[in-house]
Amino acid sequence: MNATHLTIRPITEKDVPAWGRMRSTLWPDCPAEENAEEARKYFRGGDLKLVFVALIGGDYVGFAEISERSIVDGCDDGPAAYLEGWFVEQQFREQGIGTALVNAATGWAAGQRYTWMGSDAELTNPDSIAAHSALGFEETGRIVTFRRRVGP
Ligand SMILES: CC(C)(COP(=O)(O)OP(=O)(O)OC[C@H]1O[C@@H](n2cnc3c(N)ncnc32)[C@H](O)[C@@H]1OP(=O)(O)O)[C@@H](O)C(=O)NCCC(=O)NCCS
What we know:
The chain is of the alpha+beta class and 152 residues long. It contains 4 helices and 5 strands, in the order E-H-H-E-E-E-H-E-H. Helix 1 packs across helix 2. The structure holds coenzyme A.
């Protein structure tokens, strides 16, 4: 990758189809309609505060989604910015694009006066855990989630 060709910028409405395609790769269980709804909500001012896309030339190669969460483990100074989604296309990984996306996200969060940016990774995703650690995210805990049916 020639880093001079990498662009990281906030998403615009024309990027929505590519964002949806990348979301479907990151979250294969997320139906296309949910991606479309997320996009509609985003441009109306939904839960996501900002989405960055990464492009090389005209090709979309990644994205980062940032929200605000009122409670984040280990982030005790009020609401924290939160990295909800972070994705780089497989063939472009380990070339610094994930770093550029996180730098854009943390730069925006610092400008918004957040003290912390939280994030999470599946226990089964050691690559994501390693990438978070490499970029200065400190591990604050590991959890197992449960559910129990209480209705029909
Ligand atoms: C996580 C992800 C976004 C990182 O993107 P990337 O473009 O590969 O990241 P970078 O090349 O900027 O690497 C960032 C750092 O993480 C390290 N890293 C990246 N992938 C790694 C891996 N598989 N194993 C170990 N370290 C890794 C890099 O060495 C680099 O560290 P350095 O700064 O010390 O050199 C990308 O691997 C990805 O899309 N994974 C699948 C989706 C995912 O799991 N997203 C996160 C949860 S939503």
